[in-house]
Specification:
- The chain has a domain of 123 residues: ABC-type transport auxiliary lipoprotein component (Rossmann fold).
- Strands 2-1-3-4-5 form a five-stranded mixed β-sheet, covered by helices on one side.
- It is α/β, with parallel strands linked by helices.
- 34% of the residues lie in helices and 27% in strands.
């Protein structure tokens, strides 16, 4: 009798395992702009809403809209002050990509400075590159502004209701003067209700 019970439990466990493995095997493409809230975590829809709003605000500011030459930015740290693990690199990449696509902003890739220095040395000192095509040091364009900011959140939960508030603040700092010449924020508030399960 015991062996039959053990067999039934093992068989049930196997079925559950197979069921969980096959739970998400069928998929389809969906509109990237469509808002889909599967859980109460920060998601790509939140990222897009925030990024689009702040990009639009910055592009309309005089440091860009009235600039006599295309300003050069560099992205600094955007801190995550929330309790969630949020990919801040993806967020800043999205903002930088949208700004570059506008044709009104240029960016330095600060992370590649060390690689660029090594490449200059290779092209000018290795003897493997022709003098006519070698890129020497001293011709880089200095950045005009630094883009930095902070991402924060607040969670309120009472009974079956949960409210999540997100705020992304960005600042553009003039490198010459050290002054913050533009700042703006985008807020998002989402309401969730716990689902009741009938037993």
């Amino acid at each position: 009798m015991r062996s039959i019970t053990v067999f039934i439990m093992m068989f049930a466990g196997l079925l559950a395992s197979c069921s969980s493995q096959r739970a998400f095997t069928k998929g389809e493409y969906t509109d990237p702009d469509k808002v889909i809230l599967l859980d109460d975590k920060y998601n790509e829809s939140d990222m897009k809403i925030m990024a689009d709003a702040l990009v639009d605000s910055l592009l309309k500011h005089p440091i860009i809209s009235s600039a006599k030459k295309i300003p050069v930015f560099q992205v600094e740290n955007v801190s995550n002050s929330t309790s969630e693990h949020i990919d801040m690199q993806s967020l800043t990449d999205k903002i930088r990509t949208a700004l570059i696509k506008s044709g009104k902003v240029q960016f330095h890739d600060k992370l590649q400075r060390g690689t660029l220095s090594k490449e200059y040395e290779y092209q000018t000192q290795s003897g493997n590159v022709t003098k006519e095509t070698a890129k020497a040091k001293g011709y880089q364009i200095g950045s005009d502004y630094m883009l930095s900011g902070d991402f924060s959140s607040n969670v309120q939960e009472v009974g079956a209701k949960k409210v999540i508030y997100y705020k992304l603040t960005l600042n553009a700092t003039d490198i010459k003067t050290g002054l913050i010449v533009w700042t703006d924020d985008k807020e998002i508030k989402k309401l969730y209700k716990k689902r009741s399960y009938a037993m």
